[in-house]
Write a structure and sequence with these properties.
Rossmann fold; elongated; 283 residues; homodimer; eight-stranded mixed sheet; 47% helix
Chain lengths: 283, 283
């Protein structure tokens, strides 16, 4: 049995955490990396990796794939710069919030274009292809581009599905709730503990509570219950007296957090109700 | 060396997850459990545990400690019911949002009163006393009550500090951000994925992002950085174009989540700024 991506010749624009990881996952599955380019060349793409070439010298004509792995705000600009030279048969970007249209200049120049967004945090490069197993890739664009994107995901043991242009902003917004949003809630909790001069064990305790909350959410998923059934605390159980004490204290001591507290309570109640209705339908 | 709580005779009112756990932690440290009472007696407090007595029969006069471990809304009522009979020298409740004054009837009847709130989730009973190690206990009340509360925490290898009456609502509110708040964000993300008909791998992906967010927060704590430095996403990096795409999509497809999204963005920016200022002061 040959490697699943044997014969695929590709280049990468952007040698950050995402680009360098996906490049190595593709190489591990048998693809041949021809070039890896950066807006800041002159170093190696990774330890013992190939040297980075300048983005303005990157021409990938005749190759099967060009992967553009740069930050969301830079995708359009990089696509415009690369479109001046012949490029690969298929070009995919890795942004979750943008759709294939961000690559319009490359499409006009003859490439099939699409996206391949890994729903995963890259706090550092993750070169081990085992990191790709089971994760979700959002795909869109031209049929041939989507086909190749799905072939890559399948080679990595990942799950791919089309997230079309009109669904992408909310798909991406939901990801920011789960990533940055969760950290923001913890940072707010830690700030409150600091303002009350409580010891660091309290902040560690809040972090433990959050870990417990995720464990509860995972259990709910495993048991095919809506996540609303896993929410704990006064808002979920309708303990109005405790919520009133929170709001009163926030008005005096942390009024900047009042709107966040109120909108969280509203969403909590909505989720608890949605869960209740779903569970009733089951029984 | 004798056990740290040897000679301590105590009873517990409330045989739920918290009460049954704390009872066994105290017993493991050498204390003698005299009675454990419930509003719903007639079964064992735990497998192979003592039988539950009726709350209305509980008299703990002559004992060192009565622990009241019932839900927040029930603490005052249980205190009033118990105050009709002689009770222990010290009475502690385990609520985080209430202060010692919730036990006023017992104080008038002669007990020293206080609170002992474990900052920990109890999704099920946690009988192993190792579960107590390193966790935070919020304490308040009469000096003698606080002293005993701190003695219990020390016996369990836990950290205790006074969280006085005026600080308790925010101390508890911050805990609800970290626990229920985190689950609510995930439930909202899962609801969005469902409304976009995305596969379950997306919801698992959001859960993984949240786990990664907590790992990033833990790293920040370990490195003594403010948690605001660990926030990822468009709000933290000031990517206004992406945020505008989110808000626009929310207005059309999920207007009920717009206020939550906006208040999260505001708090994220505040936390990122607070972190930036703190880091500048360090350097």
């Amino acid at each position: 049995m040959s490697a699943p991506l044997a014969g695929l010749r590709f280049s990468v624009a952007g040698a950050g955490r995402v680009g360098s990881s996906l490049a190595r996952w593709a190489m591990a599955a048998g693809a041949e990396l021809v070039r890896i380019a950066s807006r800041h060349p002159g170093r190696a793409a990774w330890p013992d990796g190939p040297p980075l070439v300048d983005l303005d010298d990157l021409a990938t004509g005749g190759q099967n794939l060009l992967l553009i792995a740069v930050g969301d705000p830079a995708v359009r600009e990089v696509a415009a710069r690369l479109a001046g030279r012949p490029q690969a048969r298929v070009v995919l970007h890795t942004s979750g919030s943008l759709d294939a249209s961000a690559l319009a200049p490359l499409r006009e120049a003859g490439s099939k274009t699409g996206s391949l967004h890994p729903l995963k945090a890259f706090p550092q490069p993750l070169p081990d292809p085992a990191e790709a197993r089971g994760i979700f890739f959002a795909v869109d664009g031209d049929a041939e581009a989507q086909e190749l994107a799905c072939r890559l995901a399948a080679a990595w043991g990942a799950v791919a599905a089309e997230v079309p242009a009109d669904a992408r902003p909310l798909y991406h917004f939901a990801a920011t709730l789960a990533a940055g949003g969760v950290t923001t809630l913890l940072a707010a909790a830690a700030e409150i503990a600091g303002s009350l001069s409580l010891p660091e064990a309290v902040i560690r305790g809040y972090l433990e509570l959050a870990r417990g909350a995720l464990a509860g959410a995972a259990r709910a998923l495993d048991e095919r219950r809506p996540l609303g059934t896993a929410i704990t605390g006064p808002a979920a159980r309708g303990d109005q007296a405790t919520l009133e004490r929170h709001f009163e204290a926030l008005r005096v001591l942390a009024p900047e957090k009042l709107a966040l507290a109120e909108s969280l309570v509203r969403e909590t109640r909505r989720q608890a109700q949605v869960a209740e209705i779903a569970e009733m339908k089951k029984n």
